[in-house]
Amino acid sequence: MLPKLVITDIDGVWTDGGMYYSAEGDIMKRFSVKDGWGVIFLRELGIPVAIMTGENSQLVQKRADKLKISRCYLHVGDKLTKAKEVCEEMGITLADVAFIGDDLNDIHLLRAVGFSASPCNTPDYVKREVNYVTVAHGGFGAFREFVEKILVDNDMLETVLQKFM
């Protein structure tokens, strides 16, 4: 069954988990453009994406804005509680949600959703909690692979790809 909402962590999933600092103290993050296609594929099917991160980063908000992701939740301390609130607003349950996360602050939500995943470079104790572990590392297309896995499992990938070929 296709999820009614896809939630994603950012650091360690859409990024390599590193934070880059300039001499002036500016923080930079590296995003893979490959992951943007995952958002586009979901949009083609009418499935919303929500970003949920513990960081309070305007860089994440800028990436969300560029990809037209309206549900971008920054500085989230308890992702499970926030996800429940979002589900209630949308009239869905956590069983209708797919979530990809990579670390300790994601485990409770990973355990609660209908379909969960983590990048392959996630700690083993997190990988043991998920339904799917990507081949791609975080920051190198892990989110897109997660989305494509969902679409393959629902016989929808070729349908979506044909819209772009």
From TrEMBL:
Its cofactor is Mg(2+). Its EC number is 3.1.3.45. GO terms for biological process: lipopolysaccharide biosynthetic process. This is 3-deoxy-D-manno-octulosonate 8-phosphate phosphatase KdsC. InterPro entries: CMP-NeuNAc_synthase, HAD-like_sf, HAD-SF_hydro_IIIA, HAD_sf, KdsC_fam. Homotetramer. It catalyses: 3-deoxy-alpha-D-manno-2-octulosonate-8-phosphate + H2O = 3-deoxy-alpha-D-manno-oct-2-ulosonate + phosphate. Substrate binds at D11. Mg(2+) binds at D9, D102. Belongs to the KdsC family. GO terms for molecular function: 3-deoxy-manno-octulosonate-8-phosphatase activity; metal ion binding; N-acylneuraminate cytidylyltransferase activity. Keywords: Hydrolase, Lipopolysaccharide biosynthesis, Magnesium, Metal-binding. It comes from Bacteroides stercorirosoris.
